[in-house]
Amino acid sequence: SAVISQKPSRDICQRGTSLTIQCQVDSQVTMMFWYRQQPGQSLTLIATANQGSEATYESGFVIDKFPISRPNLTFSTLTVSNMSPEDSSIYLCSVRGTVLADSYEQYFGPGTRLTVT
Amino acid sequence: QKEVEQNSGPLSVPEGAIASLNCTYSDRVSQSFFWYRQYSGKSPELIMSIYSNGDKEDGRFTAQLNKASQYVSLLIRDSQPSDSATYLCAVTASGGSSASKIIFGSGTRLSIRP
Question: Helices H, strands E: what count in chain B?
Answer without folding.
Answer: 0, 11
